[in-house]
Amino acid sequence: MIKSDQKKTEFSSSREAYVEMLSQLIGEKISDNEKFETPSDFNASAASTINRPELHLYENQRRAVDAQMKMVNVNYMPKIGLLGAGLLIQPGLSLGGETFNSFALAGLSISWNTSGLYTGKKSKQLVQINLDKINNQQETFLFNTNMQIIHAKNDVAKQQTLLQQDDEIITLKESIRKAYETKFQNGMSSMNDLLIAENGESDVRLTRTMHEIQLLMSLYNLKTISGN
After folding, report:
1. Using CA atoms, how far apart are residues 47 and 145, in angstroms rounded to an integer?
2. What is the pLDDT of residues 105-133, one digit of tens each?
3. Do the Cβ atoms of 177 and 183 come closer than 8 Å?
4. Exposure b/e, 124-159, CB count within 10 A at least 16 = b
5. Higher per-residue confidence, 208 vs 87
6. Is the pLDDT of residue 196 over 90?
7. What are phi and psi of 89, to 5 degrees?
């Protein structure tokens, strides 16, 4: 009983510490007696699609490179401008008649910076190198992420199998404990044997609880890796 009280003290202290840490993380006060809900199950198959924010970064980088390529192409082209002017002559002036007179001038200007013809090829090559670099970075990122997803899925499958095996062991330990209870009631077994059987069942249930928490951790690790 004293050992059981010691375990209760350890669990209570650990819970208080984790509750305080959680309170600091979310910026809200949490009471020590707060009841927490188990997170809903996450479908591991949904993690096949990668929705990481890094993919948006690579896409925006490609758009910037495309804009650079368009600027290089613009430098090849001549610049065309339209010029215009109008003049209204008031009557009574030495140059004007008795009525208002007006005339207009218009012109077209063309300029061409030929330096783009010499630097354009190199500029395009540099832009293409940057684009290839971005594509290679994305392919490497997707490859590494897929490897992490495969490992995380295997870990989830392992934890699920362990839980199934825990249920089988609990069924066996429970039947053994019930058998010793019957024997003890009939005077065919000692109290010590019954306690050993009860402790064996308790240990297996604790192990299952630990595996259940590890499964949740594996599922949310998979969720984080895939960005879902």
Report:
1. 11
2. 666 666 666 565 566 677 788 888 999 99
3. no
4. eeebeebbeebeeebeebeeebeeebeebbebbeeb
5. 208
6. yes
7. -100, 125
